[in-house]
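Design job #97: recover the sequence.
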């Protein structure tokens, strides 16, 4: 059955059935989530990764695009090309379109999330109907797929992953390839043949613009679907449609990612793009997590069962792989079918449910082999493709395979046994009751938003930020503590990743220091600045043009008492405090700036501003891992080769001292090579460390320092990184300046 024929023959009764089914889906959405306008004006989630999507939604709702955010990363700006997100350009375009009808970015965010439910439902329903599944079974399976645990556990936390409506289309494309669906019979009109090719190309383009994870998984399944008949018949012809579609998807992903790729070619890759091959196992799929109940199940016994399992190591987002009891039954049914229902020689073209079940069982088995711990995904990462690391996300494909199979079996049972009106009524009543239990199994109140708590916190933050706006000039720069890199930061005390975005989300014109990307100069400047003693910190903030200090007290072990004691003493004022939970505090620098200005000669001000904005910096590039340790003792592990850049953005050369300790296995050496030195430095490694110190003249610009080592790697327990040597307590210290060292001199961290 051709999709074009299915669409062209769409009659009013069929269209009415789709509308009725869609109404049933929307009734389910309204029953589960609060969709009233006043509820949609507050976020459904307000912490963790959700905040990143708040950032994207706000940037596009304001009328611009999301790649450049001038209000973050002060005194510079946030360049999201360093965080490859443009592979989701189609999703961002939908956000942008939704933003044309409202001034509230939160409403845009919530409307996008709510829109994913009917889109997933219609996509699944149309695909199942295309392959001949009866209306009743198709609607039931599509509802279960729409309200899968994955949809709620991802939610706005992983907004673009929860928009998984392209997945059923990808499965349809895969089944076409596996069943030779692009080669129509001669009796089929040419326009319909071309239509299917056009639909296939369109689906490939959609996948390329809705995230590289789903695109990558689709390419894998296309290869499997084409390879099975190619190997069975020992001919290459079945491979060509798959190869062509993979080429279109790959080219589309490259085009969408081109802003980031072009940026990296000019500026080098930031730390945000570095992934470790071991991540593919850490975030891999576990079959047990698919089959066991979801975390937070409404039944306490099942909730306890899952909690007991989750005491095992390496439990992370792979816990979101649960597919519900119906999906689990379908998955196990496909496993049984794969091993015990051998296909005939003509299986790829075998009509009806039997042929589809052969294909679905093969795809499901292949998906498990790719995604499971130590599976083919681990090998893909091992051989270099580390950007795809969360293989547990393949569960959304496996869930569709499983529910598609359930729909086929239910439809066959209805056709075979519901042959009279009483039997049909009984069968549909039983099916409706089963749906209630199945949906109850998949949807837990513990997964739903805490509307009142979120609204209280959100409104309190808004009032706090608006009070800040009233105390500082328009477009004022606000310095935020604690220091946190962007993105994907480990928690700092109780401050979670992206929590410091709260100021930006509620402000109309302020500029915030948070949002400097790891591995870029702005982040090195901010990290160095945050490490200064209080006197130097405040002076530097004034000279750099900041108007206030924003404190998240949860970022300090003592709830910020010590740093606020110092701030209150130096600034001679009490802070503005957020009302909901006394978590946020703000100090203005207006009066302090006036005191500094009175004590600084006018001719000296510009030179101090230059020193504040452009101190010598160190930027850690490829080969080095994130910093570990404390402010007193810190280190970075490195592979066998690494590179740093010493940066001097001032207009004159600066003399600096370079100090570090190198640690590694005894007997190896680390070579340090840079044009700044007259000769290469060779350091013999020891486990106790060898200190290295040297003077450098740092001309304006950026200068590479290359490290290489022949030492044997170290293998700490439960650490799967390539650890060859570490650089400890690295410090880049100016030793000669034109002004007294009251500026941001200090160790680069």
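Job complete. Output follows.
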């Amino acid at each position: 059955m051709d999709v074009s024929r299915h669409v062209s023959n769409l009659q009013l009764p069929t269209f009415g059935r789709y509308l009725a089914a869609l109404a049933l889906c929307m009734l389910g959405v309204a029953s589960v989530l609060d969709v009233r306008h006043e509820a949609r004006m507050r976020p459904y989630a307000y912490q963790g990764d959700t905040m990143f999507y708040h950032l994207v939604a706000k940037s596009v709702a304001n009328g611009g695009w999301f790649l450049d955010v001038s209000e973050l990363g002060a005194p510079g700006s946030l360049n999201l090309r360093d965080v490859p997100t443009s592979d989701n350009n189609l999703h961002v375009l939908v956000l942008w379109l939704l933003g044309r009808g409202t001034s509230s970015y939160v409403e845009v965010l919530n409307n996008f999330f709510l829109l994913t439910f009917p889109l997933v439902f219609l996509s699944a329903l149309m695909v199942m109907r295309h392959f001949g599944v009866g209306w009743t079974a198709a609607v039931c399976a599509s509802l279960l797929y729409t309200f899968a645990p994955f949809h709620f556990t991802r939610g706005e936390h992983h907004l673009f992953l929860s928009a998984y409506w392209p997945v059923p289309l990808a499965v349809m494309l895969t089944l076409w390839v596996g069943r030779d669906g692009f080669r129509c019979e001669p009796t089929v009109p040419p326009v319909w043949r071309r239509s299917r090719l056009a639909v296939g190309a369109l689906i490939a383009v959609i996948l390329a613009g809705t995230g590289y994870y789903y695109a990558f998984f689709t390419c894998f399944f296309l290869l499997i679907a084409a390879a099975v008949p190619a190997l069975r018949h020992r001919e290459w012809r079945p491979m060509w449609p798959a190869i062509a579609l993979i080429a279109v998807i790959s080219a589309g992903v490259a085009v969408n990612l081109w802003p980031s790729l072009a940026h990296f070619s000019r500026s080098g890759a930031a730390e945000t793009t570095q992934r470790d091959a071991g991540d593919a196992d850490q975030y891999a799929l576990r079959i047990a997590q698919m089959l066991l109940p979801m975390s937070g199940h409404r039944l306490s016994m099942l909730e306890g069962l899952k909690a007991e399992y989750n005491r095992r190591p390496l439990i992370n987002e792979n816990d979101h792989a649960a597919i519900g009891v119906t999906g689990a039954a379908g998955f196990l049914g496909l496993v049984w079918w794969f091993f015990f229902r051998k296909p005939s020689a003509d299986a790829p073209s075998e009509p009806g449910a039997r042929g589809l079940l052969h294909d679905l069982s093969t795809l499901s088995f292949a998906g498990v082999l790719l995604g499971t711990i130590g599976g083919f995904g681990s090998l893909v990462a091992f051989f270099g493709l580390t950007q795809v690391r969360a293989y547990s996300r393949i569960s959304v494909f496996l869930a569709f395979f499983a529910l598609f199979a359930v729909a086929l079996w239910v439809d066959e049972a209805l056709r075979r046994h519901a042959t009279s009106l009483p039997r049909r009524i009984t069968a549909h009543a039983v099916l409706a009751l089963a749906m209630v239990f199945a949906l109850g199994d998949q949807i837990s109140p513990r997964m739903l938003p805490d509307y009142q708590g979120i609204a209280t916190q959100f409104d309190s933050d808004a009032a706090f930020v608006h009070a800040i706006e009233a105390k500082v000039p328009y477009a004022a720069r606000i310095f935020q503590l604690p220091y946190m890199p962007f993105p994907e930061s480990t928690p700092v005390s109780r401050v979670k990743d992206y929590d410091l975005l709260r100021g930006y989300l509620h402000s109309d014109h302020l500029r915030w220091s948070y949002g400097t990307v790891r591995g870029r100069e702005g982040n090195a400047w901010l990290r160095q600045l945050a490490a200064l003693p209080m006197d130097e910190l405040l002076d530097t903030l004034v000279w750099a043009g900041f108007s206030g200090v924003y404190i998240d007290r949860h970022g300090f072990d003592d709830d910020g008492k010590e740093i606020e004691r110092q701030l209150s003493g130096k600034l001679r004022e009490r802070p503005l405090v957020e009302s909901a939970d006394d978590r946020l505090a703000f100090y203005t620098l207006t009066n302090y700036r006036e005191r500094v200005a009175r004590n600084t000669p006018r001719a000296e001000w510009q030179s101090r501003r230059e020193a504040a904005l452009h101190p010598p910096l160190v930027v850690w590039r490829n080969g080095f891992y994130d910093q570990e340790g404390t402010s007193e003792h810190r280190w970075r592990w490195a592979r066998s080769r690494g590179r740093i850049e010493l940066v001097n953005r001032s207009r004159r050369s600066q003399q600096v001292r370079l100090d570090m300790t190198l640690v590694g296995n005894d007997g190896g050496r680390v070579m340090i090579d840079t044009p700044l030195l007259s000769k290469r430095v060779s350091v013999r490694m020891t486990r106790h460390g060898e200190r290295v110190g040297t003077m450098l003249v740092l001309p304006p610009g950026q200068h590479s320092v290359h490290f290489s080592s022949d030492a044997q790697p170290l293998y700490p327990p439960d650490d799967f990184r390539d650890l060859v040597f570490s650089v400890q307590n690295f410090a880049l210290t100016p030793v000669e300046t034109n002004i007294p060292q009251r500026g941001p001199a200090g160790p680069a961290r």
